TrEMBL record:
<dbReference type="InterPro" id="IPR001763">
    <property type="entry name" value="Rhodanese-like_dom"/>
</dbReference>
<keyword id="KW-0963">Cytoplasm</keyword>
<protein>
    <recommendedName>
        <fullName>Thiosulfate sulfurtransferase GlpE</fullName>
        <ecNumber>2.8.1.1</ecNumber>
    </recommendedName>
</protein>
<keyword id="KW-0808">Transferase</keyword>
<comment type="similarity">
    <text>Belongs to the GlpE family.</text>
</comment>
<comment type="function">
    <text>Transferase that catalyzes the transfer of sulfur from thiosulfate to thiophilic acceptors such as cyanide or dithiols. May function in a CysM-independent thiosulfate assimilation pathway by catalyzing the conversion of thiosulfate to sulfite, which can then be used for L-cysteine biosynthesis.</text>
</comment>
<feature type="active site" description="Cysteine persulfide intermediate">
    <location>
        <position position="65"/>
    </location>
</feature>
<dbReference type="GO" id="GO:0004792">
    <property type="term" value="F:thiosulfate-cyanide sulfurtransferase activity"/>
</dbReference>
<feature type="domain" description="Rhodanese">
    <location>
        <begin position="17"/>
        <end position="101"/>
    </location>
</feature>
<dbReference type="InterPro" id="IPR023695">
    <property type="entry name" value="Thiosulf_sulfurTrfase"/>
</dbReference>
<dbReference type="Pfam" id="PF00581">
    <property type="entry name" value="Rhodanese"/>
</dbReference>
<dbReference type="InterPro" id="IPR050229">
    <property type="entry name" value="GlpE_sulfurtransferase"/>
</dbReference>
Length: 108
């Protein structure tokens, strides 16, 4: 697959509850520290190589940004790198935090 899929906040929460899913949060470091989906991987240019080595290509990856726009190009990139199930979460973290639990880094 070389394309990503769109996924809603509700469907993301369901997938997280039911299977092993990687949340790849591409927001800036301060925004990530201030709040992110529990267990999310902070994906940026500096951590991309490590991410590619650690995550299995058949594991579902859901890319999260601020509002669901930037995550689309990142999701497309990951799909082109060989990840088989890649999603861009519509509404981004701003929509997630309105209805779903999230965590903050202790030092934020």
């Amino acid at each position: 697959m070389t394309d990503f899929h769109h996924i809603s906040v509700a469907d993301t929460a369901t997938m997280l509850a039911e299977q092993d899913v990687i949340i790849a949060d591409i927001r800036d470091e301060q925004s990530f520290a201030n709040g992110h989906i529990a267990g999310a991987y902070h994906l940026n240019n500096g951590s991309l190589s490590q991410f590619m080595q650690q995550v299995e290509f058949d594991q579902p990856v859901i890319v999260v940004c601020y509002h669901g726009n930037s995550s689309q190009s990142a999701a497309q990139y990951l799909a082109q790198q060989g990840f088989e199930q890649v999603y861009s979460m519509d509404g981004g973290f701003s929509e997630w935090q309105q209805s779903q639990p999230f965590e903050r880094d202790n030092d934020a």
